[in-house]
Amino acid sequence: MKLNSMTGNPNNNNIETMISRLNDMSPADKMQMFLDGSPKLLVKRAEYEVPENGTFRKVEVLFDIPNTQNQAHYFIECDPLNPKDSRTFSIGVSRVGSDRMTSIQLAKGTKKEILNFLADKNNAELFKTTLANVSNSTDDYYSSF
To answer: By three-state DSSP, how is residue 106 classified?
Structure first.
């Protein structure tokens, strides 16, 4: 998938440089960049968008999984059993253009516990393996039609 440059933006040169670098990356390098960056981006967003207590809208980071028709979802949402005080972190995969998503909950706890879980570099392999398994499951589901 090639990204197109944006026009009318005062930061065009920076954006075009970033797009050019991304388009020149191998699928494996893109995937590693997404795996490394998504938890960090989710932490930054959650710091502002997830309250300590109470309900909130799902906070999500998405990216296309290279060489597939799948899209990865890293998300934090209210725990349905205790929406006032508990949060969950899950990794999911959907087929581009579909609203069906398969996901696995990896952590449950307070906002601080979830953010610490995401920031822990020891969980990087867990995120990678989980994403691969859920993506393969999604591929298996769609190949059965």
So the answer is: strand
**CA pair distance 83, 66, nearest whole angstrom:** 34
End-to-end CA distance of the chain: 25
Domain parsing of the chain, residue ranges? 27-143
User: Do 35 and 131 meet the contact criterion of CB atoms below 8 Å apart?
Assistant: yes
Distance CA 89, CA 117 (A): 9
Question: What is the C-alpha to C-alpha distance for residues 83 and 103, in angstroms, rounded to an integer?
Answer: 19
**Which residue from 58, 57, 50 is spatially nearest to 112, judged by alpha carbons?**
50
pTM over 0.90: no
* Alpha carbons 56 and 68: distance in angstroms, whole number: 31
Alpha helices (H) along the chain: 12-24, 27-49, 111-119, 124-143
Specify the amino acid at residue 130: T
- Token pair of 67, please? 């060489």
**pLDDT tens digits for range 78-121:** 998 898 889 999 999 999 989 999 999 999 999 999 999 999 99
